Amino acid sequence: MASHIPTPTPHTLNILCFGDSLTEGYSEYGTKMTPYGTATLAYFTSRLGPLTKVHLCVEGKSGDLVTAGFSRRMERICRSSSSAGGHGSLHEKATQWDWLVFLGGTNDLGYGRSVEAIWETIFSVTSIPMARGAKVLLLTVPECSAKNSQLDRRRRELNEKIRGDDREGVYILDLYKKMPYHSLGEEEREKIWDNGLHFTEAGYAKIGEIVGRRLLGIIAGGEGRVDID
Predict the structure, then answer these.
(1) Domains of the chain and any CATH numbers
(2) Where would I find the SGNH hydrolase-type esterase domain in this sequence (predicted)?
(3) Burial 1-19 (b: 16+ CB within 10 A, else e)
């Protein structure tokens, strides 16, 4: 008698990419939006089998501050109803997120908000989906073209707090290290940076692949809390 082979259970992966203009994909003075989540979704769907459906929602709002609008937006999103989607769906909303990819703080630093206030709000905002079972991929704040010692110091302090988040279920992606500005050659800088603050379509695509690679590595069990490459 032939042994019974169990049928694999289909799996759904719900990912929320949340932040400001760097999540929305702002470039070319706002005439073009190419969110990095598009490339993240493509990375996942090209590497996962047909039994895994990926629902990815991009929730970026240009000009928004962590310390002003993020909490209200996150609470609204987590209360929203789920919507059906197929394999590889973009902008799907779900009440239960498996992963939150969080990027924010650039605008707050520019407006002079205190590092402590920014970090406390990041902590509280990310705690909202975590209380519902989500894990978090927390991105550090990338540099920009402005050379300002005070801004650099405050960004460094904020990123140190982000890297030091040791809550269970929180993982770090050091975007500051992976998407430099000043250390790049002119050709590479023009390719991925749009205006010294935002990225080009190619830059957002690079971020999306970096996020996808990091997430998939964590899910597969091969990477720790902090990325080391």
Answers:
(1) 11-218 (3.40.50.1110)
(2) 17-205
(3) eeeeeeeeeeebbbbbbbb
pLDDT band of residue 11 (cuts 50, 70, 90) is: confident
What is the per-residue burial (b if ≥16 Cβ within 10 Å, else e) of 183-211? eeeeeebeebbbeebbbbbbbbbbbbebb
Is pLDDT of 10 > 70? no
d(CA 197, CA 29) in angstroms, rounded, equals: 11
Could you report the per-residue pLDDT of 121-132, keeping only the tens digit for each? 999 999 999 999
Which amino acid makes up residue 171? Y
Q: Sorting pLDDT into bands at 50, 70 and 90, what band is 95? A: low
Contact 23, 107 (CB under 8 A): no
* Per-residue pLDDT band at 170 (split at 50, 70, 90): very high
Smallest Cα–Cα separation from 125: which of 175, 70, 193, 88?
70
Helices (H), 46-193: 71-79, 106-110, 115-130, 149-163, 175-178, 186-192
